[in-house]
Amino acid sequence: MLTPERQKVIEDYVNQHGLCRVSDLCSLTSTSESTIRRDLNQMEEKGLIKRVHGGAQSVKNFTHDVSQHIRFSMNHDAKKLIAQYAVKNYVHKDDYIFIDAGTTTYEMVPFIAMIPGVTIVTNGLETALCALNNGIKTILLGGRIKEDTHAVVGQTALQQLQEMNFSASFIGTNGLDCQGNLTTPDTEEAAIKKIEISRGNHAYILTDTSKIGERSFATFAKVKDVTIITTSLTAKDKNLLPTKINLKEIC
Q: pLDDT tens digits, residue range 43-54?
């Protein structure tokens, strides 16, 4: 397959799926990782895709939710660092906390298992199962389950949340733009996130640096209302952030 033809196949696949791993693109094109990485670098320079750690992201379709099995594998080491920091500093014995259906917040669960008496409320199926497997008292919201993200959404979940209070809420995001908007592709998930924030004594956004400067369809919060937890930022990352932000940077 010639380079222009291969890159067209890659572009179409990335736009269709929203986010893809290098390994997926290798299988798709029967090409080595080094060739795919070179293609992705060239395509990013042309503005056709965006490089992320371990893969590529579409620049055209920010309303599309990425399948859960792909999201879990992207930027995994950074997500674990962020999750560990959040638990160490903001989860305490006998707390009632909310953890939403994000893949970074999911990584908190094994660390929470070492803190006695914590109760987790969540709208994430994987988070609930992981918490149960770790012996943590767990409450799963009721409602409709989204096929892509396995998040529980809808009026039943919203009504349940209105009756709950949390020591802290831990929330994922798909984008944090320079105006301080926190965004997600789906309006129903945005509605859940808004109430998570309002029902918590404190609200923490856990995000890897790939989400900085990005913007999805639905805004669910402003940075002034939350604390952002992320890994070490480059100068480019910092230029994409609003000037007033409560930021915890893990160096």
A: 988 888 888 778
Query: Measured between alpha carbons, how far is 17 from 20 in angstroms, rounded to an integer?
Result: 7
**Residue 63 — very low, low, confident or very high, per pLDDT cuts 50/70/90?**
very low
Match 């890159």 to its residue by tokens. 7
User: Is residue 89 located within the same domain as residue 178?
Assistant: yes
**Average pLDDT, rounded, for the chain:** 90
State how far the Cα of 99 lies from the Cα of 170, in Å rounded to an integer. 5
Has residue 74 got a pLDDT over 70? no
pTM of the model: 0.75
| Residue numbers of the domain that contains 113 | 71-250
Angle formed by the axes of helices 155-162 and 187-199, nearest 10°:
10
CATH code for the domain in which residue 34 is found? 1.10.10.10
Based on the domain organization, do 117 and 239 belong to the same domain? yes
